[in-house]
Design goal:
The complex is a heterodimer of chains A (106) and B (261).
Chain A (H helix, E strand, L loop, with lengths): L4 H9 L4 E10 L9 E5 L4 E3 L7 H14 L3 E5 L16 E10 L3
Antiparallel strand pairs in A: 1-2, 1-5, 2-3, 4-5
Chain B lengths: L2 H12 L3 E8 L6 E5 L4 E3 L4 H14 L5 E7 L5 E9 L4 E5 L5 H10 L3 E6 L15 E4 L2 H5 L8 E5 L4 H13 L4 E4 L3 H13 L4 H4 L2 E2 L11 H16 L14 H5 L3
Parallel strand pairs in B: 6-7, 6-9, 7-8, 9-10, 10-11
Antiparallel strand pairs in B: 1-2, 1-5, 2-3, 4-5
Helix pairs in contact in B: 3-8
The chains are: A alpha+beta (106), B alpha/beta (261).
């Protein structure tokens, strides 16, 4: 959290709507540990990361939904299935990511 | 924006140790509880019995700065998951000797989230121009300056002074402190001579073994920036419970590295 707090403070000062994604559980060789965070604004800005770049795109989309609904979500990302178009972790492992609205208008 | 997030930001800004618990499976999803070091709590996870159990666990996790998700069973029998994150005050890196290596060391330590303090008795070394990234510059004799700095387990001390008259008093203060990491620059021979002087000053072998010297891990570092990486890598290893000693630092004799000033 501390590493992305300066960006969050800056975005708050600029009146952005912000969602926060946190890795809350990992299994296997997860790319980033429990506690890794990524903040996303409704306007499309991003800070931090929850994986080595594998699922950030999906988390970004989910963060937009969370900001829209105001309702947090817990999602699990697993090993990518090459046969499917689903997002996944190329390095293996499973991560649970909790996405919540941090700053939301009205 | 939530009142609790504001309270968390305030605690972080004040450098208070605080833990935040979030309900990540169960209802009310996303509910939060802040647990302060002194036992105060703020907010709720929506179930009084859960708040109590989580607060007790969070207080145990907080001193180690631990982060984890635990499962709890509610009075109703329902199982929920709570993510608990500890926020400790930032680590502090105290550098004795405002030498060339200290410049990249302080800049990189800042990237790692450290608060940095640079100490040197020579005022033309410890200047703001040379150390724009340092949080604190102290021009004083190291042992006097160290008396002004908190030297708890969150503090790491790196002695780059490479001069007995600066180094020995600093190391004596460092060894009497609870600092998390103590390192001193110099070749193996220099380190042995230093150990002997400290032994004569009354320090035990166990005390002296706390000093990492030659400082840094062996990555073939040559330039000041590379040596800074090697030192910080060693600090990270020690912090993570992996003592890399025995590998040898592989650094050049101190004259060729510390003497660039």
């Amino acid at each position: 959290m501390r590493d992305i707090l300066p960006e969050i403070e800056q975005w708050m000062a600029e009146g952005e709507e912000i969602a926060l994604a946190t890795v809350v559980r990992t299994a296997g060789s997860a790319p980033r540990p429990v506690g890794a965070k990524m903040a996303v604004t409704r306007s499309g800005r991003m800070a931090g990361s929850v994986s080595g770049g594998c699922v950030e795109g999906a988390v970004f989309e989910l963060a937009q939904q969370v900001l829209e609904s105001g309702r947090p979500q817990l999602v699990q990302y697993g090993i990518s299935d090459e046969m499917a178009w689903d997002v996944g972790l190329s390095c293996g492992g499973i991560i649970d990511v909790f996405v919540e609205p941090l700053v939301r208008r009205g | 924006m939530s009142k609790l997030f504001n309270a968390l930001r305030e605690a972080i800004a004040r450098e208070d140790a605080v833990a935040q618990a979030t309900l990540v499976r169960g209802e009310p999803l996303g509910a939060k509880l802040l647990i302060y070091e002194d036992g105060r709590i703020l907010g709720t996870l929506g179930h009084p019995e859960l708040d109590e159990a989580v607060a007790a666990d969070a207080r145990a996790l907080l001193p180690q700065g631990k982060i984890e998700t635990r499962s709890y069973q509610l009075a109703s029998g329902e199982e929920v998951d709570v993510y608990i994150e500890s926020f400790l005050p930032p680590r502090r890196l105290v550098v004795i000797g405002a030498v060339h290596i200290a410049i990249p060391l302080v800049a990189m330590a800042r990237e790692l989230g450290y608060r940095t303090t640079v100490i040197d008795a020579r005022e033309f070394f410890a200047t703001r121009e040379r150390f724009p990234h340092a949080d604190e510059l102290i021009v004083a004799w190291p042992d006097e300056a160290l008396a002004q700095v908190p030297l708890g387990p969150q503090t790491d001390i790196v002695v780059l002074a490479h001069d007995e008259k600066f180094e020995d008093p600093a190391l004596q203060v460092a060894l009497r402190s609870r600092a998390g990491y103590i390192g001193a620059i110099g070749s193996r021979k220099t380190s042995e001579a230093r150990a002997e002087r400290l032994r004569q000053a009354g320090f035990s072998d166990e005390d002296i073994a706390r000093i990492h010297g030659p400082i840094g891990i062996d990555i073939g570092a040559r330039t000041p920036a590379e040596i800074a990486v090697s030192i910080l890598a060693e600090i990270i290893a020690v912090r993570s419970g992996r003592d890399p000693r025995g590998a040898g630092s592989g650094l050049l004799p101190a004259k060729a590295t510390a003497g660039n000033d």
